[in-house]
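tool_log.txt
---
The assistant was asked to compare two proteins side by side. It first ran the structure predictor on the initial sequence, then on the second. Raw inputs and outputs are pasted verbatim so the downstream comparison step can read them without reformatting.
(1)
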Amino acid sequence: MAKVKLPISLQRFTEGMGELQIDAATIAELLKKMIQNYPQLKGKLVDEKGNTGEFIRLYVNEEDIELLGGKSTFLGDQDTVSIITPLAGG
């Protein structure tokens, strides 16, 4: 199972959990399972076409998935997926 680290801004959609354990072979499968388990994440992580949001960044073991294999990036049992969202402020 991959470990998923969530930013505070998404924890309200996962019953306050900042870390999840998800059994998935790829990033695409991981996102699908996260949304199945926590439907409110759908509009936050992916758009209506299933593409990750413009400002959502996903990292596997601190490497941007866009430099790996995108949503086809394979996951191992010891991998950590970090979800990064933008910070607002001014």
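(2)
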Amino acid sequence: MPNIKSAKKRVKVIEKKTAINLAHKTALKTAIKKFEAAVAQGEKDNAKALFSEASKKLDQSVSQGIIHKNKAARKKSQLALKLAKLA
């Protein structure tokens, strides 16, 4: 446990940022799962809308530093491939 005042503050700040990052990651995973569920059911129009939402969330996660840009690019590519196979 930290004794210095600034170190105590850093612990609080890190806990808060960790909670925010976890919430963003959870929302991202949910968006991806919704898209994959729509693809599995064969809903083309719904899948297109959910793809754009998932891709937007991936881009936002990169800009906020939650995930690496190459991971986001790879994931968007995988999702686009699933969408193309559907159509």
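---
observation on (2): The CA atoms of residues 18 and 54 lie 22 Å apart. The longest helix spans residues 5-41.
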